Amino acid sequence: MKAGQILVADHDGVYVIKMVGDVRLTLCISFDQFIDSMFKNAHFASVLFDLSEAEAIDSTTLGLMAKISILGQERHGVIPVILASNPSIQRILQTMGFSDIFVIVDKLDEPIFAEQPLNCINCDEQQVKEKVIEAHKLLMGLNASNADTFRNLVNMLENC
After folding, report:
1. pTM exceeding 0.85
2. Helices (H), the chain
3. Can you point out the beta strands (E) in the chain?
């Protein structure tokens, strides 16, 4: 499996976030910092996720994607779009309830580009743990199934 990478681009306030390979929590701090800077941009207009080259996405990254949708809707009335052509990725998105908070498509009329890679930021274990807890609580808030799936993980992390 190809190592995970997150590529980003800002096209006049339309943010493109492309995930490639096996995207894991090692990128969660840099991805969260990107999310913060994206929403601070006065010209923010919308978000498009390109998952066409993603092989796997862990639940922490999915939780941060949910964060973008929730904040996008709360702050700007925008529902992000996800391009997902891989059936296994589509199944994960459906299982997590993402069709309730994203527009999910399997193709686009025009190609999109994201070329700036997010770099893995060295951070301490506590920062990563807090980000993992936040991401999973966001997923738990989407539906009862997610709440059941991630409750023990969140409880365990909060108590260690």
Report:
1. yes
2. 28-40, 59-76, 87-95, 125-140, 144-158
3. 5-11, 14-23, 46-57, 81-83, 103-105, 116-117
Cα distance between residue 2 and residue 152, in whole Å: 30
pLDDT tens digits for 89-145?
999 999 999 999 999 999 999 888 888 999 877 778 899 999 999 999 999 999 999
CB-CB contact of 102 with 81 (8 Å): yes
Is the CB of residue 99 less than 8 Å from the CB of residue 122?
no
What is the rounded CA–CA span in Å between residue 9 and residue 11? Answer: 6
> How many angstroms from the chain centroid is the CA of residue 30?
12
CA dist., res. 64 & res. 143, Å (int)? 16
The three-point CA angle 22-93-113 to 5° equals: 60
Give the CA count within 13 Å in the CB-facing half-sphere of 42.
0
- pLDDT of 111: 83
For residues 82 and 49, the answer to whether their CB atoms sit within 8 Å is yes
Specify the residue for token string 């929730």. 70
Distance CA 113, CA 105 (A): 16
Q: In 3-state terms, what secondary structure has residue 9?
A: strand
